[in-house]
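Intended use. Records like the one below are meant for learning the mapping from a protein sequence to its folded structure. Do not use them to infer anything beyond what is encoded.
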Amino acid sequence: MHFSDLASVANGYKQMETVAPGSWDLKFELGYEDASASLPAGQKVSLNGMAATVDKISVSPVGTSLVYTVDAVSDEPMPESGYADELPTDRFMSPPFTVTFKDGHTEEDSAGTSDYREQDGKTVVTKGMSFGSVANMDDIASVTVGDQVIPVG
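Structure written out for the chain above:
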C-alpha cells in the first residue's frame, strides 16, 4: 500500500491541506475468513422511476455492496466547481436500498458510499452501506433494492 502527502479535508472535500508531507510504502498480511455472501443478481428494478438492472449484490456482517446499471444518463452538466458531489444525481445515487433483519428491524442506506460512471448511454452505480453494528449473517432476512426484495440465504 502506498501513501503520500497525507491531507486533511474540509468543507465537503472542497478544501484540502497537507498535514504530513512525504511518501510511505506499507505491506502487511490480513488474515480473515470471508463471511460475505453474494446474492442473485440480474433483477430488473424500478429506481426512482427509472429502469435499472442489479449487476452485483453482496451482504456481510458489516454491511452490503450493490452495483446496478440505470438505463439513462444524467443530463446535468458538471458544476463549475468540478465537484461531482454538487451534481443533482440523487435520482441515480439514492435508490430505495434497505436491509431487513429477521427480527423485523431495518437498516437503510442513508450515509453509505457511492460512485457512478457513465458507460454506453447508461449509468453504472456502485453503493456500499455499513450497518450500525456487526450483524450475525443468520439474522439477515433480505435486501430490498428499488421495488425488488432479494432474500438472503
